[in-house]
Amino acid sequence: MAHSTSSDELLRSILDANETYAAAFAKADPALLKKLAKGQSPRIFWLGCSDSRVSAELATGVAPGSIFVHRNIAQCFHPGDLSASAALAYAVHVLKVESIIVCGHTGCGGVRAGMQAAVDGRDEPQEAPQPGSVADTISKWIKPVRFRSPAPPFPAVSFSPPLSPSLPARPQITHLADLQISTDSARSPLDDFSLAELTDTHVAETVFAVANSDIVKAAWAEGRELTVHGWVYHVETAKLRDLECGWKGSAFLGLPFLLSCSGSGVLTRPRRCVTVDERAPSLSRPVTSADAERVGDE
Fold first, then answer.
1. For 28-66, how does the pLDDT look when each residue is reduced to its tens digit (9 = 90+)?
2. Using an 8 Å Cβ cutoff, are 143 and 78 in contact?
């Protein structure tokens, strides 16, 4: 994509815009500027995607100092990710936030890349990317998304044993029939329908991972009124949607997310549902380093 301005011109325009912003801020709310200079006391920790279209402050309309933010590709929470763990620990135990929001978004390139790699890799083993390459780095990062991508026929959500005795069973992918899609020639396993379903599931699973972290469980052990929630930002409308898949202590707040439960323990979500007879076709396109480029795709 060609740009009409040079990099230097772009940076200059940003600095000029900051001058305008600073002057307007100082005129509109000088007291808030003085308050922010003394420190921060946000009530919310936001774990969101690095996507340039999704800004926590703009999406929520709150003032500076209201949200403590950590962002990465596809809003993942890896147990070994020191950066995310440090941000969460600081927010929970130093800033004493009251709520944690895991926020995904529609058209997420990271989720799409993980889904593409999962679908493509089923037909035949693919050569692993060169260690240290761009593809290798991104592939490792989106691994949780890739492993949540269901194999055709697309699965339902069911209960699995909790990762911790202090938490009840959580929603997890199993090979049944919920995230199925039409076999119509105009659609594929990677259409907006299945991407939206996987985005919701990934957010819910990340909410569980955060809730099951030692950092959050320690706060609950202290009697803290800390809640963890899952939201999705719709880029096309700029609106936020609460998935209602939250946790407060050992209590799951997300019954509306699960909606119904059969006697066998299989949970279904009628939203965007299709018939159980539909099956997704298997794709055979090889996985290449180009998958990494999808992370930035709309």
1. 999 999 999 999 999 999 999 999 999 999 999 999 999
2. no
| Residue scoring higher pLDDT (226 or 286) | 226
Of 143, 150, 159, 198, nearest to 177 by C-alpha is 150
- Residue 296 located in a structural domain: no
Tokens of 100: 């944690």
Residue 48 is part of which domain span? 41-124+133-148+192-247
Which residues partner with 232 through β-bridges?
Answer: 104, 241
The predicted-structure confidence for 149-176, as pLDDT tens digits, reads as follows 443 333 333 333 333 334 444 444 332 2
Which residues are documented as binding site? 49, 51, 105, 108
3-state helix, strand, coil in the chain (%, to 5): 40, 15, 45
Write the CATH number for 89. 3.40.1050.10
Q: Which residues are annotated as a binding site for Zn(2+)?
A: 49, 51, 105, 108
In a domain, 289, yes or no: no
Q: Is residue 143 part of a domain?
A: yes
Residue 211 included in any domain: yes
d(CA 139, CA 202): 16
Number of domains in the chain: 1
